[in-house]
Amino acid sequence: MDVISVIRTKRDKGALSDAQIDWVIDAYTRGEVADEQMSSLAMAILLNGMTRPEIARWTAAMIASGDRMDFSSSLSRPTADKHSTGGVGDKITLPLAPLVAACGAAVPQLSGRGLGHTGGTLDKLESIPGWRALLSNEEMLDVLNGTGAVICAAGDGLAPADKKLYALRDVTGTVEAIPLIASSIMSKKIAEGTDSLVLDVKVGSGAFMKNIEDARELASTMVELGTDSGVRTVALLTDMSTPLGLTAGNALEVRESVEVLAGGGPSDVVELTLALAREMLDAAGLKDADPAKALADGSAMDVWRRMIAAQGGDPDATLPTARETHVVTAPSSGVLTRLDAYDIGVAAWRLGAGRARKEDPVQAAAGVELHAKPGDSVVAGAPLLTLHTDTPERFEYALESVAGSYDIGAAGTQFERTPIVRDRIA
Ligand code: URA
C-alpha cells in the first residue's frame, strides 16, 4: 500500500477501499504517513466527500487506533452521554451532567478544550480553584460511582488517530468536512463505551455547520454510525446564530451554570438543558425521571457540588473576576434584532478566553457578558455588552469583532425568535 495512491483515489473522486482506509489511519498514527500527506488526503475528503460505508470504515479504523473503555461491568446504572459539535456560550454540559446523574443515569463525560472561537468544557471547569481535568481510569470510575457523573479529559489512549488528525485539520483548513467531523466525534464516543448518546448539533454562524441542510447531513451520519455500533443515538439540531445564555468565557459560564443548577439562569440555557436531559434519560431507559424537578428541588446542585469536590475543586470558592472591564452601550433605542454568535465568540477569544494554539494558556475570567438577547428592547446609552479581560490591551482587537456583531431595529420592530431546538434526528 502506498499513500500517494490513496490520495490520488480521493483526489479523483473515487471511493477508498476498506484496506486503504485501515492502512492509512494506522500508518498515520504510527508516523509512517507524514502530516503533509495526511493533510492532502483530508483536503481531498473535504472537497470530494465520502460515502457512508467509507465514513463507517474510517470511524472503525480510528477506534481501532487506541483503547476501548467498558463501564458495563463496573456500574449499576445505565450510562448516558452527550456531545455538542461546539458553539459560543455553550456551557450546557456543566448543568446537564449532574442533572442527568441526579435522575438516575451514570454520566461519564469525556470533554475537550476550546480551540478557535468555540469554548471548551475543561477550560471552563478549570476556572474553579483546585479542579482537576486529568484523572486516571480508576479515579474516573471512583468519581462516577461516588457521584453519578464525571467530567474529565479523555486519556491519550482513546482514538489517538483522531487526536493527531484533529490537530492537523485545525491548521490546514479541513475541520469543516462532514465525514471528518462525524468520524472524529463518533470514534471517541464509541471508544468511550457509552450505552446511549445524545448529540447536540449546532447550526448557525457560531457553529461549524452554518445551514440546516449541512447540520442535518452531519446529524444523520453520526446517528447512523452510533446506531450501527450498538449505541442508542439521537441528535437535536439546535440554534447557534446567537450565543447561548448571557455569557461567553470560562468563569463567566461557570457562574451562569451554577445559576441554572440553583433553579434560575437564562431561559434558553434552561430550555436546552432540559431538552437534552429528557433525551438522555429516554435513551438510557429512564423515561419516568423528571429533570425539571431535579433542578427545582436542588438534587442536581447536590450532584454538582459532590462532583466538583471529588475532582479537587471547591464548589464554594469565589470564581476569578477580570482585572478590567469595558462596557459597550447601545448606540440607539429599539429592538435588538441580531447578536452574532461568531463575532461574540471571536471577541471572547481575543479577550483571552480561548487559545490560538493548543499549548496556549487561557484566562479564567476573560469573556463577554450580554445584557440583551435578540428580541429584547434596548435603550440608547444603556449597556449592551461587558467585555472582561486581565489584559486591557486586548480590548481594541475584541471591539473590532464586536463592532459588526449586532443590529438594532426601530422600536416596535417585529422579531421572531429562532426556536432553540430546530429539529430532531433519530
Ligand atoms: N469536535 C470534534 O471532536 N471533532 C470535530 O471534528 C469537530 C468537533
Largest sheet: 4 strands, mixed
Assigned CATH class of the largest domain: Alpha Beta
How many separate structural domains?
A: 3
CATH superfamily of the largest domain: Nucleoside phosphorylase/phosphoribosyltransferase catalytic domain
Strand order of the largest sheet: 1-4-5-13
- Tally of separate helices: 16
Write down how many β-strands occur, each being a DSSP E stretch of 2 or more residues: 13
The proportion of residues in beta strands is 15-25%
Helix amount, in percent?
A: 40-55%
Radius of gyration: 21 Å
| Basic shape | globular
Characterize the structure shown.
This protein has 426 residues and is an alpha/beta fold. It has three domains: 3-49, no CATH class; 80-156 and 187-310, Nucleoside phosphorylase/phosphoribosyltransferase catalytic domain (Pyrimidine Nucleoside Phosphorylase, Chain A, domain 2, 3-Layer(aba) Sandwich); 324-409, Aldehyde Oxidoreductase, domain 3 (Alpha-Beta Complex), CATH 3.90.1170.30. The chain is built from 16 helices and 13 strands. Helix 1 (3-11) packs parallel to helix 3 (35-48), helix 4 (52-64) crosses helix 9 (178-191) and helix 15 (341-353) packs antiparallel against helix 16 (395-403). 53% of the residues are buried. The mean pLDDT is 95. Bound molecules: uracil (URA). Uracil binds next to helix 9.
Secondary structure topology:
Blueprint: H1 3-11, H2 18-30, H3 35-48, H4 52-64, E1 80-84, H5 93-102, E2 107-111, H6 121-125, H7 137-147, E3 149-153, H8 160-170, H9 178-191, E4 196-203, H10 212-228, E5 232-239, E6 247-248, H11 250-261, H12 267-283, H13 291-296, H14 299-310, E7 324-329, E8 334-339, H15 341-353, E9 367-370, E10 377-378, E11 383-389, H16 395-403, E12 406-409, E13 421-425
Parallel strand pairs: 1-4, 2-3, 4-5
Antiparallel strand pairs: 5-13, 6-9, 7-11, 8-10, 8-12, 9-11
